[in-house]
Specification:
single chain, mainly alpha, two-stranded antiparallel sheet, 3 helices, 51% helix, globular
């Protein structure tokens, strides 16, 4: 689904977005725009933090070519594997929609 977050078209690869995910993406967008400076967000396990972050950042980079790289750090290889899986899902959706 394509959703509008503070004027940015965000490519979100699922049919439903939780209100918490939209709020999370809004705050990330505000940070990227320089409105709020630094950003520290917390959400419980299983609430879609990874897909929300990747969808917003990749959509932002797509529409703002001067945006720098995304560096994503995890504590374990298993966690990174999950991130890469979600990244592939988001990228496939962006390619399909663009």
């Amino acid at each position: 689904m394509k959703i509008n977050i503070d004027g940015l078209v965000v490519y979100f690869p699922y049919d439903y977005i939780y209100p918490e995910q939209a709020k999370y993406m809004f705050h990330i967008k505000q940070t990227l725009d320089g409105v709020k400076g630094h950003c520290l967000l917390e959400m419980p396990t299983g609430t879609g933090k990874t897909v929300s972050l990747l969808s917003l950042i990749l959509s932002y980079q797509l529409q703002h070519s001067d945006t720098g790289k995304l560096v994503y750090c995890t504590r374990t290889v298993q966690e990174m594997d999950k991130v890469v899986e979600e990244l592939r899902r988001v990228m496939a959706y962006i390619v399909q929609e663009c």
